[in-house]
Amino acid sequence: MVKAKVWILKKHFEGFPKESNFELKEVDLPELQDGDVLVEAIYFSLDPYMRSLSKMFLKEGDVQYGTQLAKVLKSKDPEFPEGCYVVADCGWRTHTVTKAKGPRGPILTRIVSEWPTDIPMSLALGSLGMPGLTALYGLEEVCKIQPGQTVLVSAAAGTVGTVVGQICKIKGCKVVGSAGGDDKVAYLKELGFDQAFNYKTVPSLEEALKNASPEGYDCYFESVGGPMFTAALKNMKPGGRIAVCGAIATYNDTTPQMCPYPHHEIIVRSLTIQGFMVTNYKEKDEESVKRLLTWMKEGKLKTKEMVTVGFDKLPIAFMKMLKGDGLGKAIVKV
Ligand SMILES: NC(=O)C1=CN([C@@H]2O[C@H](COP(=O)(O)OP(=O)(O)OC[C@H]3O[C@@H](n4cnc5c(N)ncnc54)[C@H](OP(=O)(O)O)[C@@H]3O)[C@@H](O)[C@H]2O)C=CC1
Ligand SMILES: CCCCC/C=C\CC(=O)/C=C/C=C/C=C/[C@@H](O)CCCC(=O)O
């Protein structure tokens, strides 16, 4: 009988997550039935949604949810043969017996057959996976960017933000990024951002945005919320578009942040503000991953990973990711 280590969400998060929110257990896995697959986790992805959507999807005592890159060890589903690699929404479990689809949609997605041997498969959790697709859809489907436009992106040194900036350059836009460290600002410039600033040290966000693009912004790729959103509104060009992707500066709040009513700026600038979920565009994923892979092979899309080793380190690595500590996509290697 196969045993699995699992991390349980023992207590729902209140404020910033703590190690005591989680509990490590060992469980026995069932024998495979028709349509079942046994997968073994290789890498885990740590993503902000695991904090922001936790209460929506989990109850106390459930296995902590999250995405992993896994290898199929045994299979009773011909579409997922033994030895193939999958992105698996199986949660924090070393081994899982699962069907390919669940009540919320696909659980297993095969790595595209064109995956080059010299590109690490862990990137299927980062720039070449869900976060990379988020960047692509936010720019193409929501902002509908055009060459020559100026795009602002917050959380720019994060996984989504770095891909946003590089796609903007591929598509002939000017791009300005905000990030929370001088090392991060230097990295954004290395990636080709036209302007970047440290939102933690500039005297005024509004002035920093004005200095970076005195003519204003056609598009804002919003990932943080809070005062940055207010400052961005005041710097949008008339007819500007805002893709609301996330609000990471608010996820750990215990009381909601108050901000000035945004109506004046939205109305006088005739802004369009649209929220989106990466999952809205699922049918485009396969083709989109191939486009991201092509850009990477051409050297137009670069990425960094921050790898922590050890299944037991998942809670610590999760908290580090939420704080924005370190540079690169947060990954745990089993
Ligand atoms: N709508 C959708 O479908 C999706 C939305 N998202 C959202 O996109 C955003 C970025 O995700 P992703 O790039 O994968 O995450 P990463 O973990 O790669 O990066 C997150 C970034 O957020 C920054 N950050 C953390 N706390 C704050 C804060 N208080 N204020 C401002 N910035 C902060 C960190 O850097 P620093 O502060 O140092 O700059 C860090 O670089 C998140 O808001 C996430 O929820 C992601 C995927 C899908
Ligand atoms: C002010 C509150 C804002 C809430 C923000 C919510 C979400 C933003 C975000 O980060 C969304 C991420 C979506 C990720 C989707 C991932 C799927 O590929 C996997 C889902 C895992 C599962 O269903 O088990």
From TrEMBL:
Catalytic activity annotation: decanal + NADP(+) = (2E)-decenal + NADPH + H(+); leukotriene B4 + NADP(+) = 12-oxo-leukotriene B4 + NADPH + H(+); 13,14-dihydro-15-oxo-prostaglandin F1alpha + NADP(+) = 15-oxoprostaglandin F1alpha + NADPH + H(+); 4-hydroxynonanal + NADP(+) = (E)-4-hydroxynon-2-enal + NADPH + H(+)
Chief location of this protein within or outside the cell: cytoplasm
SUPFAM superfamilies per record: GroES-like (SSF50129), NAD(P)-binding Rossmann-fold domains (SSF51735)
Compartment list: Cytoplasm
One GO-annotated biological process of the protein: prostaglandin metabolic process
InterPro entries: ADH-like_C, ADH_N_2, ER, GroES-like_sf, MDR_fam, NAD(P)-bd_dom_sf, PTGR1
Domain Enoyl reductase (ER): 18-332
Keywords, in A-Z order: Acetylation, Cytoplasm, Fatty acid metabolism, Hydroxylation, Lipid metabolism, NADP, Oxidoreductase, Phosphoprotein, Prostaglandin metabolism
CDD domains: leukotriene_B4_DH_like
Gene3D superfamilies: Medium-chain alcohol dehydrogenases, catalytic domain, NAD(P)-binding Rossmann-like Domain
GO CC annotation terms, alphabetical: cytoplasm
Top-rank lineage group of the source organism: Eukaryota
GO molecular function ontology, one term from the record: 15-oxoprostaglandin 13-reductase [NAD(P)+] activity
TM segment ranges: none
UniProt EC number: 1.3.1.48, 1.3.1.74
Family assignment from sequence similarity: Belongs to the NADP-dependent oxidoreductase L4BD family.
Quaternary context: Monomer or homodimer.
PANTHER family referenced in this protein's UniProt entry, alphabetically: PROSTAGLANDIN REDUCTASE, PROSTAGLANDIN REDUCTASE 1
Protein name: Prostaglandin reductase 1
